[in-house]
Amino acid sequence: MTLWIFASLLILLALLLILPPLLRKDLSYGNDRREQNISIAKQQLAQLAKEHKAGNISEPDYISTKAELEQSLYQDLQESDADNTQKTAKSRGAYFSLAIVGLFVPLLSLAIYLLVGTPQAIDESSRVVVADKNGMPDINAMITRLEQRLEKAPNDAEGWFMLARTYSVLKRFDDAVTAYEKSIAIDNKNPQAFFYLADTLAVAKQGDLRGRPNELIQQGLALKSDSQMGLWLAGIAARQSNNNAQALAYLQKLHPLLNESPTEQQEVAKLIQQLSGESSAAAPAPAPQAATPVAQAPAPVPTPAPQAATPVAQAPAPVPTPAPQAATPVAQALAPAPVPQAATPVAQAPAPVATAPVPQVAPPVAQAPAPAPVPQPTAPVVTAPASQSVPPVAPVAPPAP
């Protein structure tokens, strides 16, 4: 209601400023012409009288000239009065015309607006800009209107992109993903749509940009390789994949693009410094790994030596086994023949000593004498038959008498 009152006052003010000057111009024009004619006639009569007094003009000429001037002035005044009469009539018509214009122009404008315009838009606009408690506009109403518009124009890629951004603000991430995908399906040349879709998918994965989000980032960078958002997301994705070299390359490319944002540029610089430190700290790691096998090389050398010694120590074990069996028959008492069998494992013991790769490594050469105790098994081999021959001799002697 206030709007209409204000509009009416503006119309009246405009009419008051325009109409009066137009009316005053017509009336003043007739009066000015009459005054000019009288003034000119007076000047001519004064000049004529001056010339007559000076003797330049004779009396008859003076009288005739004066009569002509008066007659001319009379005619001019008559014409001026006639013009004023006509102009007065015209002025009355002008008043009527101006009244019609001043009255019907606003009414006609209002009628056209009511027929062609949308007066409801005034109320709708007032409802749209309804603020909540925090002074923010009603986002839900904006989303509703945008959704209705996209129903009528489903091929509006920019509209779907704006709707997806709005969904993200409201944390409706599933709806945002759907809207971003529709926008990309309509227009796949918008790199921002790829970056925002990747970011939204990462939110659903607890910030993880690996997998499909990273693929979307690379597609966006293929369209715009110097995108600040794309380079930042690509660097984070590479860092999450433990590819610090690639992450460092993305961030180093991003750093000079942030000259107009000093705060963000400092954050990127800190991250670059951190990645550079991690890369330099990880560089010497291979050196100890190469030294480890060298130190471990002697380890396998002593391993076969104890294994070879083990069968030598175990070789005497089968020798005492036939001793109890030899106590029954004398022929079996002569079983010291198994002594050569003990020699067989003795002969096998040197074999591993000869095949040991000790001579191939210079440091373990000092360990080669370790198998030297191999001759020790010969002592038990000799003592074993000796101990076996004593018991059989004693039982043979009594049957001789």
Q: How would you describe this protein?
A:
By secondary structure, the protein is mainly α. Among the domains are: 2-117; 128-278, Serine Threonine Protein Phosphatase 5, Tetratricopeptide repeat (Alpha Horseshoe), CATH 1.25.40.10. Helices cover 74% and strands 0% of the residues. The protein has 18 helices and no strands. It has helices at 2-53, 59-116, 120-128, 139-152, 157-169, 173-186, 191-204, 212-223, 228-240, 244-254, 262-282, 286-296, 304-314, 322-325, 330-333, 339-348, 350-355, 378-396. It is elongated and about 130 Å long. Mean pLDDT is 66; it is low at 124-133 and 288-401.
Q: Biggest β-sheet, characterized?
A: none
CATH topology of one domain: Serine Threonine Protein Phosphatase 5, Tetratricopeptide repeat
Task: State the shape.
Answer: elongated
| Highest CATH level, the class of one domain | Mainly Alpha
Query: Compute the gyration radius: what is it?
Result: 61 Å
Amino- and carboxy-terminal Cα gap: 158 Å
Strand content: under 5%
How much is the average pLDDT? 66
Instruction: Compute the number of helices.
Output: 18
The CATH fourth-level homologous superfamily of one domain: Tetratricopeptide repeat domain
Residue ranges: pLDDT <50 for 5 or more in a row? Answer: 124-133, 288-401
Q: Please estimate the helix content.
A: over 70%
CATH architecture of one domain: Alpha Horseshoe
H/E element sequence = HHHHHHHHHHHHHHHHHH
Short account of what is shown:
The protein is mostly helical. It is 74% helix and 0% strand.
Write the topology of this structure.
Layout: H1 2-53, H2 59-116, H3 120-128, H4 139-152, H5 157-169, H6 173-186, H7 191-204, H8 212-223, H9 228-240, H10 244-254, H11 262-282, H12 286-296, H13 304-314, H14 322-325, H15 330-333, H16 339-348, H17 350-355, H18 378-396
Helix pairs in contact: 1-2, 4-5, 5-6, 6-7, 7-8, 8-9, 9-10, 10-11, 16-18
